[in-house]
UniProtKB/TrEMBL annotation:
All residue ranges annotated as the GGDEF domain in the record: 294-427
Entry keyword annotation includes Coiled coil: yes
Coiled coil location: 125-152
EAL domain mapped to chain residues: 438-679
Protein name: Diguanylate cyclase
Lineage: Bacteria, Pseudomonadati, Pseudomonadota, Gammaproteobacteria, Lysobacterales
GO-annotated molecular function: cyclic-guanylate-specific phosphodiesterase activity
Keywords: Coiled coil
Organism of origin: Metallibacterium scheffleri
PANTHER family the UniProt entry points to: CYCLIC DI-GMP PHOSPHODIESTERASE PDED-RELATED, CYCLIC DI-GMP PHOSPHODIESTERASE PDEF
Amino acid sequence: MKQDSVIKILFVADVLEHAEQIISQLRNGGIAVRPARVGNEAEFLAALDSLGPDLVLAVPGARDLALADVARLIGASARDIALVALLDHIDATTLAQAFRSGARAVALAGNTEQLRGIVLQEAEALSARRAVRRLEAALREANRRCDALLDSSRDPIAYVHEGMHVRANQAYLEMLGFEEFAEIEGQTLLDLVAEDGTEDFRGLLKRLSRGEPPPARLDLRLKRADGGVFDALLEFSQAAFEGEPCLQIIVRRQVVDKSLLEQLQRDIVTGLYNRTHFIDLLGSAVTEAGKGRNDQAVLLLEPDHFASVVDRVGISNVDTLLRGLVERIQGVLAPPDIAARFSDHGFVILLRGRPHESVQVLCTALLQAINGAILDLGNHSLAITASIGGSLMGEKNANTAAALDQAGNMLRNAQGEGGNRFALYDPAAQERAEADKDKRWHNLLRDALAHGRFVIFHQQVIALLGSEGSISELLLRMDGAQGLVLPGIFMPVAARHGLLPAIDRWVLREAIRLLSSSGFSQQSFFVKISTPSLLDEKLADWIGEKLRESSVDGQHLILEFQENEVVTNLKHAQRFSQQARALGCRLALERFGVGLNSFRLLDHVDADFLKLDRSFVNDLARNTENQRRVREIVQQAQARGKETVAEWVEDVNSVSLLFAAGVSYVQGNFQHEPERLAS
């Protein structure tokens, strides 16, 4: 399941607070959920239609709806919904009872990590089952179309399972002299091979039975039903017939000799295999990698600064230059290594039977062979260098396009670092690379904090119903070596390394500095407060001190935190909100409205602004359920004297609907692109 997918969860519980607590735990764990709670059978049946849940979290001791009844209702609905029993403790008895009642899994209500893991596990399993069903439907449709194409094809095609014919089209029957398929059904392909080729073909069948991949093509003499013999070219590919794996065989009469066929597979200039034939060879290697073979690699090689080299030697000498380069490459390679020309000046190499640790040695030898030679090009002699990008092939990247893309990315990395070097993609090294990347970002963040390398942007929050003053939200960026870095990249790193409080204080300090300047006297700023800062008992005093030092009225500072963070840290949120109120600051709740009873939070945290969750605004013009929900939230907010803000508004139709619903403010790139304020 995609990381940003919303998981629809139906709670079966008597106590609302219990469900609210679980929702907050999941959201704080990074899981986007759309919840609903029911307490009896009628509510459950209604929620099945209105919510369409992915998961049901049920407390076995619910008063009006036992766990077994929940399982019965899910079964009767004929829907694929995972039932998870939510337990206060787990022992042998409760575990057995939960599974006997029909639960697919059990989760501990008080163990956030275990609960998060179970929810993700069941959501991903559901996503996988749905994907399988889609694939099965697509496969059935593909098989239907293949059957239609097979029957209408003029190419002789047969399907063979364990050496026996299971399907053949009319063209195949006519080529071999049969009138109907019944004459060869169950007959082995070996029976159609001329006597001089039976021994070799029998060996091929034995290799296929051991799971080895078939050759892409095979020259063979076949015999017809009337005893006639003809030269044929058999093209093999993996297929399936009625759900069973088999071979698809296309039979072509030999109309050209082998030497001509070989020429068609070769590049005229270099004599290497051409790109088309190499892709076929790489496909076979990928199939073997998918079965666990881990001694293969694909390399892309290009001469460095090729355009300037051509300028020096002239276009007429390019072919000679490429042939000289090929000589150096082939001098290093050995069977079964295969080199091919891949582009105008690029080459590709398939290494087989080489352990991954030896690939680096070969890459070094290739670079030395190229760099250490002087190429004689008529009136010119020159030395060149080259760069190599490679992908070590294994089960994790057993895909032709992926392997070539990875090698291409590594080639660009090597060229970007100056050339005359190689870079290899190693799937097994990804975890180490991720750890190194995290360390680099951590150091960059510490440096940005120490030297003020953060940048403040602002986005106006537009009043729909009229308002005094101007309001903007402050948005943070980091000044990186390649340009500005968005918070979605560096903030997760900051959270892992405990840097969020320091970053929050940096933003607050900048906000107060801006508010103290003459150009922002009538401006107010939304400023996000992270959970660690919410827990900081000294933060409010620090804010008060900075406001007094700058002579800034606290009402211009709108401190914003997420609804689910408040639910999880209610006591800390109450304390902080009271302290902020005392400073004159206003408060905002972000991602509001997705809880089971979001407005109950206002009894504890008296927020001035309610920022609607993004999910309500997405596709608002076409989603009538979201329109209804927005109207309900706005009506309740107005009854309590609260302002509402709709974020991520991206089209004029949504603005019109939000205005009609009574929303106070809108925010989004449609109204105002973020602008840089200060650094």
